[in-house]
């Protein structure tokens, strides 16, 4: 399966899924089960990548990672 990307490198499937999730969240439109599955699968992969890189993160460490750069 090939992944289509726009000229700026954004995965078009992810972009389309994100738009559908936003319509679901803000307009109450039904969310296609295939979109929900893809979004859930991507979230699980990202979560696993973070766990591999940082281990299980406690709340304090998570907060520090979010705000480690000075504004």
Describe the fold and architecture.
- The protein has three helices and no strands.
- It has one domain.
- The protein has helices spanning 12-27, 33-54, 59-66.
- 65% of the residues lie in helices and 0% in strands.
- By secondary structure, the protein is mostly helical.
Question: Could you provide a short overview of the structure?
Answer:
With 71 residues, this protein is mainly alpha-helical.
Layout of helices and strands, plus pairs?
Blueprint: H1 12-27, H2 33-54, H3 59-66
Helix content: 55-70%
Terminal Cα span: 42 Å
The gross shape turns out to be: extended
Q: How would you characterize the largest beta sheet?
A: none
Indicate how many domains the architecture comprises.
1
β-strand amount: under 5%
Structural class: mainly alpha
- Count of distinct strands: 0
SS summary, helix count: 3
Low-confidence stretches: none
The succession of helices and strands, N to C, reads HHH
Radius of gyration: 16 Å
Question: Mean of the pLDDT scores?
Answer: 86
Which features characterize this protein?
71 residues; 0% strand
